[in-house]
């Protein structure tokens, strides 16, 4: 079944989200620098890019940069004067991402900040509100990242969180994986937050079986 998911993903990627030299260079540089292969797929990158366009986002916040692959997809969709603030904990990952984004010609649209996201987020109050927020970092802290996302939002802000299905383990309350428990706390917070209208979608593809949540700030 996973082979079928991969084949279909590649079929649609080739048709709808074809790679190019800049995107390929990000992946190649990330692999050569031994970054973990946990970034978004091409179709997911295109999905994020379309969300930036659909929402007309000018100010984007990304929690978790890795090698800058998803950052590049979103940066390409920004209107003139638009900007992404992206947070990365690992200095090595940040260095690789910064060079990737410079080489791709979008560094002038990206403000890459290095440090623990939970410590960087309070410093973004003066940059807020953000129009779109993408959460793709340590799963144990997703609930706290959601709290800060709300503080840095406005009515209409779109909040996306990746890797929220974890091969289906999220549905098992007895699972002792701290990443799964972090996602469950995050999901409970989504459900309890009256200021958000949220949904979750399961995904399959070259990244396996996972999913994302999508939420819109109402007030």
Structure summarized in a few sentences:
The chain is of the alpha/beta class and 219 residues long.
Distinctive features:
219 residues; Rossmann fold; alpha/beta; 8 helices; 7 strands; 7-stranded mixed sheet
Question: What does the secondary structure layout of this molecule look like, with pairings?
Answer:
Elements (H helix, E strand, L loop, with lengths): L1 H15 L4 H12 L9 H14 L3 E5 L5 H7 L7 E6 L2 H14 L5 E5 L2 H4 L11 E4 L6 H10 L6 E5 L15 H15 L3 E10 L2 E10 L2
Parallel strand pairs: 1-2, 1-4, 2-3, 4-5
Antiparallel strand pairs: 5-7, 6-7
- What is the percentage of strand-forming residues? 15-25%
Structural class: alpha/beta
Uncertain runs are none
Give the second-level CATH assignment, the architecture.
3-Layer(aba) Sandwich
Let me know the CATH homologous superfamily: Vaccinia Virus protein VP39
Average pLDDT rating: 97
Q: Which word captures the global form? A: globular
Assembly context of the chains = single chain
Q: Give the SSE order as H and E letters.
A: HHHEHEHEHEHEHEE
How many angstroms does the end-to-end distance come to?
Answer: 42 Å
> How many whole angstroms does the radius of gyration measure?
16 Å
CATH class: Alpha Beta
């Amino acid at each position: 079944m996973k082979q079928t998911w991969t084949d279909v993903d590649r079929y649609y990627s080739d048709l709808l989200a074809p790679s190019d030299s800049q995107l390929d260079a990000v992946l190649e540089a990330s692999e050569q620098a031994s970054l973990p292969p946990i970034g978004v797929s091409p179709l997911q990158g295109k999905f994020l890019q379309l969300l930036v366009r659909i929402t007309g986002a000018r100010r984007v916040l990304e929690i978790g940069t890795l090698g800058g692959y998803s950052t590049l997809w979103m940066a390409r969709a920004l209107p003139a004067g638009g900007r992404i603030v992206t947070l990365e904990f690992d200095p090595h990952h940040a260095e690789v991402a910064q060079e990737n984004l410079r080489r791709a010609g979008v560094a002038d649209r990206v403000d890459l900040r290095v440090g623990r996201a939970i410590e960087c987020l309070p410093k973004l109050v003066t940059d807020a509100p953000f129009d779109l927020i993408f959460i793709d970092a340590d799963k144990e802290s997703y609930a706290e990242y959601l709290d800060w996302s709300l503080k840095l939002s406005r009515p209409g802000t779109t909040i996306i969180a990746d890797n929220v299905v974890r091969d289906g383990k999220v549905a098992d309350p007895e699972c002792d994986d701290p990443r799964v428990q972090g996602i469950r706390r995050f999901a409970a917070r989504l459900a309890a937050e009256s200021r958000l209208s949220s949904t979750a979608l399961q995904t399959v593809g070259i990244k396996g079986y996972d999913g994302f949540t999508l939420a819109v700030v109402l007030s």
